[in-house]
Design brief:
This protein has 232 residues and is mainly alpha-helical. Helix 2 crosses helix 3 and helix 8 packs antiparallel against helix 10. It starts with 17 loop residues before the first helix and ends with a helix.
Length: 232
C-alpha cells in the first residue's frame, strides 16, 4: 500500500489589501489564543473561526488546516524575534566589551520573545507538528549566522566554520529555557542569567583566540539544504 500524500501546510492566500491583511491577522491571533487556552488538541478551524468572528469558509480560504495556521503563527513570531535582535546586533562594533555585548544581545532576544508573545504554547506545538521542526531549524541556522557575525564584529579570529559550530551550540543552549518551561513552569530570571553565563564560557576560547577545534564542525550548507528541501 502506498503512503498517503503529506498534508499541505502552505498558506493558500496572501492578502495584499488592508482589509484582507486584517482578516489574516485576526485569524492568526485567534489561533494563538485558542492554542494558549485549549492546547493543540483543542485547536480546530472551527474554533479559530469562532474566536476570530470569521466564517469557517474564510479561514479555509487562507489555510488548508489548523497545522498550517500554527506554522504561520510560529514562523511570523520567530521572524519578529530575529528582527528585534538584529536591531541591537548591528549597533555593536570592534572594541566593544564582547561579554557585555553578547549578554545584551541575548537579553534583547529573550525580551523579544516576551514582547512578540512567543510563548510555551508555540514551543510545545513544535513537538506536535513536524513541519515546525523544519521552520525552527532554519531559524536556528539564521540566528546562528547572526551570532557568528556578532562575534566576528567583536573581534574573534576564528573561521566561519568553527564559529558556526560554536554559535549553534550556544543557540541550542539558549533554547533550553523552553525545555525548562515544559518541565518546571515559567523560566526565571536566574535561569536566564545562568544560560548567559554558560554561553559566555563557551565563547571564551573563540574570543581569546585559542586554537580552533580540530573536529566537530557542522556543514552549514548541507544542513541548510536538507531542511530547505524537507517536505517539498
Amino acid at each position: 500500500m502506498s503512503k498517503p500524500a503529506p498534508r499541505s501546510l502552505e498558506q493558500r492566500a496572501t492578502p495584499v489589501q488592508p482589509r484582507g491583511a486584517r482578516t489574516l491577522q485576526a485569524v492568526l491571533d485567534a489561533a494563538h489564543h485558542v492554542l494558549k487556552t485549549d492546547g493543540i488538541d483543542g485547536l480546530s478551524t472551527a474554533a479559530v473561526a469562532r474566536q476570530s468572528g470569521m466564517a469557517v469558509g474564510t479561514v479555509y480560504r487562507l489555510f488548508p488546516n489548523k497545522e498550517a495556521i500554527v506554522c504561520k503563527v510560529y514562523e511570523d513570531k520567530i521572524r519578529q524575534v530575529r528582527a528585534i535582535g538584529n536591531e541591537i546586533r548591528v549597533t555593536f562594533q570592534r572594541g566593544d566589551d564582547w561579554r557585555a555585548a553578547v549578554r545584551t544581545y541575548i537579553e534583547v532576544l529573550k525580551g523579544a520573545e516576551r514582547s512578540t508573545d512567543f510563548d510555551i504554547s508555540l514551543a510545545s506545538a513544535g513537538l506536535m507538528i513536524p513541519e515546525i521542526r523544519r521552520i525552527d531549524t532554519l531559524h536556528a541556522i539564521y540566528m546562528t549566522d547572526d551570532l557568528v557575525d556578532l562575534l566576528k564584529t567583536l573581534g574573534s579570529p576564528w573561521s566561519d566554520a568553527a564559529l558556526f559550530e560554536l554559535c549553534m551550540t550556544t543557540y541550542c543552549l539558549e533554547t533550553a529555557s523552553w525545555h525548562y518551561a515544559n518541565t518546571c513552569g515559567t523560566p526565571t530570571a536566574t535561569l536566564a542569567d545562568r544560560l548567559i553565563v554558560c554561553a559566555l564560557a563557551i565563547m571564551e576560547p573563540a574570543m581569546r583566540g585559542d586554537p580552533e577545534p580540530e573536529d566537530g564542525n557542522i556543514d552549514r550548507e548541507r544542513l541548510l539544504a536538507s531542511y530547505r528541501n524537507d517536505h517539498k
